[in-house]
Amino acid sequence: MLEKRLKRHVIGPEQEFFVVTAPALEHLCYRELMRVPLSCKEAYIVHGGIAFKGRLHECYVANLKLATANRILMRVAHFRAHTFHKLQKKIARIPWELYLTADCELSFRISSHQSRLYHKEAVAECFAKVLRERLDTYGAMSAEADAAPSKQQIFVRIVDNQFTVSLDSSGELLHKRGLKNYRAVAPVRETIAAAILQLAGYSETEPLIDPLCGSGTFSLEAAMMVKHIPSGWFREFAFMGWPGFSRRRWQHLRKTCGAEIRAMDKPQIFASDSDETMCGLLRQTVEKHNLADAVQVACKDFFQIAPRNLTAERGLVVLNPPFGLRLRGEFNHRDFLEAVYGHLQRFYSGWRLALMIPEKQCKTKAPFPGLTKYTLLHGGLKVALLTGTIP
Ligand SMILES: C[S@@+](CC[C@H](N)C(=O)[O-])C[C@H]1O[C@@H](n2cnc3c(N)ncnc32)[C@H](O)[C@@H]1O
Predict the structure, then answer these.
(1) Which of 73, 171, 238, 306 has the smallest set of CB atoms within 10 Å of its CB?
(2) Is 187 close to ligand 1, i.e. is its CB under 6 Å away?
(3) What is the mean pLDDT of residues 208-222?
(4) Residue whose CA is at the smallest distance from ligand 1 atom 25
(5) pLDDT > 90: what percent of the chain?
(6) pLDDT at 175
(7) Where are the domains of the chain?
(8) Choice from 185, 189, 190, 212 to test ligand 1 binding pocket (greatest atom count within 8 A of CB)
(9) What's the pLDDT at 234?
(10) What is the pLDDT of residues 119-176, one digit of tens each?
(11) The CATH fold of domain 2-168
């Protein structure tokens, strides 16, 4: 009975999805979505993301492949409610057993603007109570009995008393690729690193030098790009705990993607940092995930590297210099940036540059003209990407 209802209401028909992106990355992510390719329909950009319609399979593909998406929500209901009484009734009408298993762990993310029901905790409590009652009555336990309960998040957005209820299909934010198991100081988010590589026009046929690599985010993203490894290849997703999840379809999708993964003749991505610990951790990650054919890691000072000693061809040099409070007193950021520019001018002629710096550091002018500037938001901080060719 549940099987039939799942097919009729969740698996068969198209669903509404919303891809959440960082501000300013909507267009890039849209481009990715169009390239995937997905048989999604009615895809359009709105502030903070992309809405599209598609079947559950499209949701699997989007989670697995979109490198610049933060998370993907599936819309479950839209309704109006001004009172808790009305809200309870509306929640009780949603067939939750088609979306969630009875044994899942639930959490709620509520936002409310210009609405009578503005008390977020009370709204969350109302959802939790009614939803649990419905799942206890109609819900099925998860098919994998010995697995840990799946963690599911419900997003509720209330604007002018209009509720939009969504289920988070991703789970952990998608910038968590499942590659690194260590923390770094000031790492760049993988979604931002992927965006920077795309904006700088990184192509899989050219060398990449990442000489202030830290935890190696740029190099790992580039390695996945050149080897055609989907960005979500090494992780799991919340949709895998949904009653409508088809393991058979998922495995087929992974098999198809797996067949496209390439082995490289020799590494064309050169990651280095002066921090030995970081280089050691990155090397371990690279080896563990079979990326050593794409990435070479070395512990070196940036100012000691000349690209001609690494590769005969020119390509992209990507830099995310140290900045922020942790370095206060150690050295002057402006002097460091000027030294970086000087070194680039001397040794990287003909290379393309992707330089990520806090917006305010743009006052230190690059000694070469014609760089394009993009403004991005990184963890609430305005950062600039300067990109172009070094003369
Ligand atoms: C902001 S962090 C880079 C973070 C990196 N993008 C990531 O995602 O983890 C800057 C890095 O520059 C490195 N660094 C600073 N001065 C350096 C130098 N002269 N040569 C090489 N690495 C240097 C630091 O060790 C640090 O790992």
Answers:
(1) 306
(2) yes
(3) 98
(4) 275
(5) 85
(6) 97
(7) 2-168, 190-227+263-389
(8) 212
(9) 98
(10) 999 999 999 999 999 999 998 888 776 678 899 999 999 999 999 999 999 999 999 9
(11) VC0802-like (3.30.2130)
Any ligand 1 atom below 6 A from CB of 212: yes
320 in ligand 1 pocket by Cβ < 6 Å? Answer: yes
- Give the pLDDT band (50/70/90) at residue 363: confident
The CATH code of domain 190-227+263-389 reads 3.40.50.150
Q: Which atom of ligand 1 is nearest to the CA of 303?
A: 19
Each residue's pLDDT tens digit, 324-343: 644 445 567 888 999 999 99
| Ligand 1 center to 277 CA (angstroms) | 12
* Closest atom, ligand 1, to C-alpha of 188: 8
SS3 265: coil
